[in-house]
Amino acid sequence: MSGEAFLKMHGLGNDFVVFDRRKGGAPLSAAEARRVADRKLGIGADQVITLLPGADGADVFMQINNADGSEVAACGNATRCVASLLIGEGKGDVSVRTKADLLTARSGAGGIAVDMGLPGLGWRDIPLIREMDTLILPLQSRIDPRLAEPVAVSMGNPHAVFFVSDADDIDMELIGPPLEHDSLFPERANINVATIRSRDHIRLRVWERGAGLTMACGTGACATLVAAACRGLAERRAVIELDGGELVIEWRDDGHVVMEGPAALSFTGVWEWGQ
Question: Which residues does the annotation mark as catalytic?
Answer without folding.
Answer: 75, 217
